[in-house]
Amino acid sequence: MPLPPLPPRPASLDDPLYYLHNFRSALRWLEACYADLFDDAERDFFTHFETLPEPAQALWVRMVMRKGDTFRDDRLDYAEIGSPATALAPLIERGWVEDDPRLSVSALWPLLTKAEIGRYLHGLLRDHGLTRGARKTDMLEVLTEADLGEHPLTVWCPEMLFNVVRMTRMALCERLRLMFFGNLHQDWSEFVLADLGVRRFERVPLSPASRAFQRREDIHTYAHLHACRERLEAGEPIAAILDDLPSANANPWLENRRGKLLFLLARAREREGELAAAEDLYAQSVHPGARGRRLRMLERQDCHAEALALANEAAAAPESESERQQLDRLFPRLHRRLALAPPSVIEEPAPTRLEMTLPRTASVERAVAAHLSCASMPVYYVENALINALFGLLCWEAIFAPLAGAFFHPFQRAPADLLRPEFASRRETLFARCLARLEVPEGEQGYRAVIRRTYHAKRGLESAFVHWEALDEELLEMALACLPAAHLRLWFERLLRDVRANRAGMPDLIQFRPEQGGYRMIEVKGPGDRLQDNQRRWLAFCARHDMPLDVCHVAWAS
């Protein structure tokens, strides 16, 4: 089946079966993308789903979109589907739905109201010393400890007026959702939100190379890592999760996910006080910051010589400015504890300090903005929004370029590799072309014209850089008039060096001077507040490049 040039679009909510049309559309897309990776069960599902009567298809999708896999049939009553029993019959016959499944107490309890428990299970409650007035959670706790086994609803509650069914292909549907979205935090409701206009996305052309997974093993590895992380969040013992952790993966995307899980497991070990175990896990992780935490574990264990050796290795090729900042603090401590000569220190230029006393308000940043703003030199509270937005508008085509493995489906606000180290290098030529426009201030291909065109053409589309509600035309035009192209280039290049760290920490306020064609940035600190590390890095960067920047310390008037 040839792959369509663009992914499926949401069906209209005016159609009562919109959710079924969306699911069918997703299935067609999956079949076009992943037919070569399907296993026998998935091929069987695709073969037989379209042969089911439409009410059965619709009810299946309704159940897929609901929480859990076990349902009361009296709560599967949808006007557009009709009789639940009629719709369920073909699904039961095919084995995709189990009728009257065996249920544990913990599976039974969510299906019943407290009144139904009191009415139909009063004998069971009495036998275990419970009354109808007990809390439902307390009842469940007592009965779970009694280990009553699993029984059909017809055994638990013979007088119940409804039936229970259980889907037997939910794991398969979860795999299809994973293949479609490339993750398990998005679900089929994305179609609905898109049709409602709640969220609108850039339409990126896709090809078979765009799919999230190129090998069947990668699908299993992702699902396995996801399950391990859920177990960690559920409080399962760390040792049990480590025993089940997949080995290192050649796929960089999956190895990054594995590295993040190792990082989380290491943090859990650290919280338990198991510093040596934590240090070993950090050493195995490729997640940003893992080496820094490993250094901290060595230092806390008084392994200062080992820590210095690792710190020297990190200093030769720091993974980020954040790590460089950490090393600058660590070296003096290690040298002192090892009785070595203190390391040389490069003093960063300090920004101008302002001190101000203002009447107390809810927002110290807005108070300073109101105090400094005037008609000829307006002040805007922009924080990270302005520079990120200008970058996102100028480089839109590079950010949304249809590179292999970057866009999997129609509901992405950014490429999948946005926060990975290779994000900029994979698009080096595209970003170079975008940034070259900064050398051309005017004309159709100048950066101002490109930013304006993108602003109007893409307004409202989801973006990891552009927060539309924070950028109106007045602010945009003021920025284009007053911010030098050379400074824009420096900011944008710094963003590209480390998107994860550098798209935050920018100064709170910006004051424009349109008559002079200039500006200044202002970082605001209220009483008791202090600069965060990412803010210090931005301030030092701006100071190194002679960008006008003040740090304003505010005291409240008594």
TrEMBL record:
Enzyme class: hydrolase
Catalysed transformations (reactions): Hydrolytically removes 5'-nucleotides successively from the 3'-hydroxy termini of 3'-hydroxy-terminated oligonucleotides
A Pfam entry, by short name: FAN1_HTH
Cofactor(s) of this protein: Mg(2+); Mn(2+)
Record-listed E.C. numbers: 3.1.4.1
PANTHER family according to UniProt: FANCONI-ASSOCIATED NUCLEASE 1
Name of the protein: phosphodiesterase I
Keyword Magnesium part of the UniProt annotation: yes
InterPro entries, sorted: Fan1-like (IPR033315), FAN1-like_WH (IPR049125), FAN1_SAP_bact (IPR040603), tRNA_endonuc-like_dom_sf (IPR011856), VRR_NUC (IPR014883)
Domain VRR-NUC: 442-556
Keywords annotated in UniProt: Hydrolase, Magnesium, Manganese, Metal-binding, Nuclease
Family: Belongs to the FAN1 family.
Species name: Chromohalobacter sarecensis
